[in-house]
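Fold this complex.
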Amino acid sequence: MDNDRFLRALRRQPVDRTPLWMMRQAGRYLPEYKATRARAGDFMSLCRSPELCCEVTLQPLDRFGLDAAILFSDILTVPDAMGLGLRFVEGEGPVFDRPVRDAHAIEALGVPDPETELRYVMDAVRTIRGALGSRLPLIGFAGSPWTLATYMIEGAGGSDFHTIKRMAYDAPEALDSLLAKLAASVSLYLEAQQRAGADALMIFDTWGGVLSPADYVQFSLEPMARIVEHLKRVAPETPVILFTKNGGQHLEAMAETGCDALGLDWTTDLGSARSRVGTRVALQGNLDPTWLLAQPARIEAAVARVLDSYGKGPGHVFNLGHGILQQTPPEHAAAMIEAVRNLSPAFHA
Ligand code: CP3
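Structure:
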């Protein structure tokens, strides 16, 4: 790999400067993304075209100097392949035509075969891998079973999660069986992405932080731990990153799964996270994405605080604490990237 800073940092090996990528680095804040998306029609048609996925994956790499590419796709491809009928409604986000509401519906769900039912994603990985050559590592990803289940049971995003929580309390065995099917599906899906050319794998647990601590362990962490165990058996050299948004209180338990790195949102202090788990895992994060709405001249100081908070030495991947906002002016992202390039070598001297 010509640029292996990202993979080295995930393995906590020395680097010349802190590697950097941005969650949702390909997306609507970029005019070139909007142009490709308009050509594709809707978002899922874009996801189903390996050539267009490759084009948008490369767009932020061509514009900025980033240290990793991330597959352009979505976490909801897996429940879509399970037959739920995914649609993205303009201004509303993802919606399933056939949400899962009871044990009967869960019983009927299958575990998708990645090379047939999710072939378009594997073709996108192969196409992007070919286009990148040895230039940069490629991150493959999936949603955590809990996060996928929230969309599958609620039928749409952004609620108080009362439907899935009621199932957790009234029918925990039904929810456990759904989470077990999802853990099996995501394990095979990530394994297939690795075989198709992904160099690191990330699990997005966007909604694990809405659970009580005990429920987090049962419904979010346990299924993720099964996936990590599978990946470490089939692809032990491939780094795995776990990201639970608002999961700062669970870092020790997350590190225990055997993953290589933890993604942090901005509500957790990087320095204290490092003293808690930094000898076991690398850390990725954690600038509040809202900072990129501030004046570029102010962004450098915010970057400096993130770098200072982690401190000197290996094991840090700079990132935002969540996806880049679509209102972000691309020049502001460029100012952050410039600041990481200029300031971070001093932390690796
Ligand atoms: O990081 C990257 O550049 C890779 C692409 C990526 C997308 N979605 C593309 C996308 C990744 C890693 C995801 C993950 C994802 N998808 C998550 C977990 C990460 C997180 O942000 O918490 C979640 C919860 C989803 C589900 C999802 N997909 C939502 C809630 C939305 C937004 C709906 C909206 O209209 O705001 C999507 C759509 C989506 N996924 C877009 C992109 C670029 C926007 C679609 C568009 O072009 O209209």
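Residues 5-348 form a domain with the TIM Barrel fold (CATH 3.20.20.210).
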